[in-house]
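Morning!

This is the sequence you dropped in the shared folder:
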Amino acid sequence: MWYSSYEYYSIIEYSLAFGVAFGVFTGLFLDTLNQRISYFVAAVLSLISYFLIPHFDGSSRMKQEDWHFYSLSCLVFIAGQGSSLAILTTVKV
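The structure's back. Tokens below.
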């Protein structure tokens, strides 16, 4: 895998942690909309990000470049945002 070094792994790990920790943005989103729409948005964010992560994780045969790593970091951040929104919506309900 092209990101197997600790530097790449720690950045991906932190992007997930910051995605979940930035619940302020998802909390504001939750306060403006109702719970059903928030659950739907959380499901769509998680579905899109978890569907696209394997395309950028280095397991494909195409040549891996730096933009794959940045795309993977953004997708993991979006997955964290979806998780955060789902958790906050569950707590509010």
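Headline: Residues 6-92 form one domain.

More detail when I'm at my desk.
O.
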